[in-house]
Amino acid sequence: MRFVLLGAGVCGLSLLVVHGQAGVPSSLPLPVLVVVAAAAGLAAWWARRSWWPLAAVGAVTYAWLVMWPPLLVASYHAGRTLTRSRDVAAYLGGCLVACGISAVVSEWQEFETAGPGNALVMALGVVGLPFALGLLVRARRELQKRVEHEHVMRAEQARAQERARIAREMHDVVAHRVSLIVLHAGALEVRAAEEETVRTAAMIGGIGREALADLRDVLGVLRSTKTDDQPPPTLSDLDRLLDQSRALGIAVTRHDEGEVRPVEAAVERTAYRVIQEALTNVHKHAADARTDVRIRYGPDELEVEVRNQAPTAPRQELPGAGWGLVGLRERVELLGGTLRSSAEEGGGFLVCASIPAALPVAVDRRPA
């Protein structure tokens, strides 16, 4: 829109100049002057793609009729866009030639702009000042980009330092505690006399070692911007997760409904995390409760549901951060889905997530 207004302004102002309203008379017929002014306006409108036609029209009309608006606008664009010294020299040289021809034509036709002094003032006003203004605008634009780039780099540096600090805290605290669990589980496995205790200790040690491996991967992501080569878990890894829960004494049953088909990788990852977090809550609050894991493949969405019954025996609840379901809800809503959790009659609990099978274009599909 602004280039349309620019073209209209150049056309109108050029017509005023060549029609004698700015001290430059012309003996050409009015229709010819209108055509010349319209050509200048069209070239100014086209400057949004290329300003060289405007420069050519400006040079010709200035040398012929001392019509300065096209050359003035072209000089401003030249100052904003030309970066190489060769191009700047070529443009300014062409403008000097046009101004020289204009001075000769003005002297011959006895225009009011005739004379070396007037020609010099016109050249400075039509070429020099607009060109300098374009240079100033370009310099300010480049300075602003440089400042924005520095702000981005500082923010990236601050994020990297914070990620490194979190990685150190996780390594010094969490990894140390999990390592102790693995060591005690190994010692219990060796010393225990009962076969049931040996199996439980071995299972605890295996889960602890897997947790250490996952923690090592997380620390690697925090300390580096490189993508992890190991793919994140999806629904194809769900049976292994359910077997771990069964080994801990939970009666877990899987139900698949609908036509099983591949969906977006981000959708599968999120569905897996929902089931994982729901089973973790069952371990914490109702370890011996019967649990049903249901996966429904709808035409446009994937729905996962984890429903556990009331525990048959009281259990001391394990500590937790309290942010599991909150984080899951944010993760599901990021994909355009919904997550709900509620207590069931009789003491059970339900976690249900519905995720669109096809993701919006703006969703980040990188592994998470």
From TrEMBL:
Signal peptide: none
Reactions catalysed according to its record: ATP + protein L-histidine = ADP + protein N-phospho-L-histidine
GO molecular function annotation: ATP binding; phosphorelay sensor kinase activity; protein dimerization activity
Catalytic activity, EC: 2.7.13.3
Classification via Pfam families: HATPase_c, HisKA_3
Group of enzyme by EC: transferase
Keywords, ordered alphabetically: ATP-binding, Kinase, Membrane, Nucleotide-binding, Phosphoprotein, Transferase, Transmembrane, Transmembrane helix, Two-component regulatory system
Domain Signal transduction histidine kinase subgroup 3 dimerisation and phosphoacceptor: 162-225
Gene Ontology cellular-component annotations: membrane
Residues of the Histidine kinase/HSP90-like ATPase domain: 268-357
TM ranges: 54-76, 88-105, 117-137
Gene3D superfamilies registered for this protein in UniProt: 1.20.5.1930, Histidine kinase-like ATPase, C-terminal domain
Name this polypeptide is given: histidine kinase
Species assigned in the record: Nonomuraea polychroma
Lineage: Bacteria, Bacillati, Actinomycetota, Actinomycetes, Streptosporangiales
